[in-house]
Write a structure and sequence with these properties.
The chain is mostly helical and 98 residues long. It contains six helices and no strands. The longest helix has 21 residues.
Length: 98
């Protein structure tokens, strides 16, 4: 099963993380959501997330987080991301990778 598990990671969320990177992904998820989840588990969010959260910088939805998101709607950003991920998946399928 190790190969199957590696493929799931490589061609699934690993691909998405590699395309967006860690901090951009946090902005896409929403720093408010991440903070709420951490507090719900009785934990404090990581300090750089908490600082932005308390300034009202939740990421893409507010136009600022770790990145600035001027004029980008969540739909536009997710559409671009999904289009690129589909392109990469098709490329892998044509190469016989998956």
């Amino acid at each position: 099963y190790p190969e199957l598990i590696d493929d799931v990671i490589s061609f699934g969320f690993g691909r998405r993380m590699a395309y967006t990177g860690y901090f951009k992904r946090l902005d896409l998820i929403g720093l408010d959501f991440i903070t709420t989840q951490a507090k719900g588990r009785g934990a404090e969010p990581w300090k750089p997330i908490a600082e932005r959260f308390y300034r009202g910088e939740y990421g893409m939805k507010t136009g600022k987080g770790f990145y600035d998101w001027p004029g980008d709607s969540p739909k536009q950003v997710h559409r671009r991301l999904n289009t690129e991920l589909i392109r990469l998946m098709k490329q892998d399928m044509e190469a016989g990778e998956i």
